Amino acid sequence: MPTFGNAQLKLLERLCNVIAISGDESEVRKIVLEEVKPYADEVKVDALGNVLATKHGRGRKRTRVMLDAHMDEVGFMIVDEDGEGLYRFEIVGGIDARHLVGKQVLVGKERAPGVIGAKPIHLMSGDEYTRKVPLDALRIDVGLSGKAKVGDRAGFATRFRRVGPSILSKSIDDRIGVATLIELLKRVPSSIDLCAAFSVQEEIGLRGARVAAQYFHPDMAIAIDSTPANDLPLHDASENMTYNTKLGLVPAIYVADGSTLHDPRLVRFLQEIAESEKIPYQIRQPGGGGTDSGAIQRSLAGIPTVSVSVPHRYTHSPISIARVDDWKHTINLLHAALQRITSELLLVR
Ligand SMILES: [Zn+2]
């Protein structure tokens, strides 16, 4: 099993604390390049900004296995300036606008501190207490200090924290996948060619992964991501039947999501590995949002694809919570799976 401890958590902390809104992933890319160069045989940055790292195996009949994790996170783009340090913005990726009021952000290349302001409760009247504030009524306020340009990105200012068995951070989606992929690249079995795609622009339509799959031409692929755990008790005390995944039970193996019917051979293979290695796992409830698997599976003439995710609560918000052990089990499952992949795996449907 791979080593897991402070070094891995420190790497995740570095990855979570930088900002990489879709289309502007340079800060994560810099860390990824630093981390993968000592372990990969080839490393390339393509036209979109994907980091494509290959580790060649030895011997005949090697399976080309693509592993994907997306570098980008949800955030904001500055679209207009109102003067007085106030900026209009659009949301990049899926964020519930109700999460935004009162949140701290960092704006532009200079990372100017700002806040998404709102009318104070003292001055509200009528239905203002209950009404959703429309996005075009919100502004990012940098307090006259920073200077932003149209097209600049802004991201949540949350800092990574380790609290007992949990991680509290922004962008666990999908820095935890990026950190997982870096760890896996350190110990690739010689029976496969590992094609590692650190992809861009997942949050705005799985754009980088599609190009990465075309570059690698893999025999199979696994998208490593994080998925919502909607496992809180319901306010009416009935049983929560639509939790998607639960914390503390991971990894989450996908059967079907909004963009992919995952390859049943690969789903079964991962379950068998987990059972034989005594690694706990859960099957993510079918449906809901997708991962890069949706783009990879439909690239070229079709690629057998599966997804594995680390669950986390409060996805696409300023702060999410995941469990350290859930992440460790995810790395262990994928590591064990890589050791056991053979060309026979995909022979029979
Ligand atoms: Zn994601």
Provide key terms for this protein:
alpha+beta; 8-stranded mixed β-sheet; 6-stranded antiparallel β-barrel; binds zinc ion
Describe the structure.
- The two termini are 30 Å apart.
- Helix 3 (172-185) packs across helix 7.
- The chain has 349 residues and is α+β, with helices and mostly antiparallel strands.
- The protein has helices at 6-17, 26-36, 172-185, 207-216, 264-277, 293-297, 324-340; strands at residues 42-45, 51-55, 63-70, 75-83, 86-92, 104-107, 112-116, 140-141, 153-156, 161-163, 166-169, 192-199, 220-228, 252-253, 282-283, 305-312, 320-323.
- Strand 14 (252-253), helix 5 (264-277) and strand 15 (282-283) form a beta-alpha-beta unit.
- The chain has an 8-stranded mixed beta sheet with strand order 1-2-12-3-13-16-14-15, with helices on both faces. It has a 6-stranded antiparallel beta barrel with strand order 4-5-8-7-6-9.
- The mean pLDDT is 94.
- 46% of the residues are buried.
- Bound molecules: zinc ion.
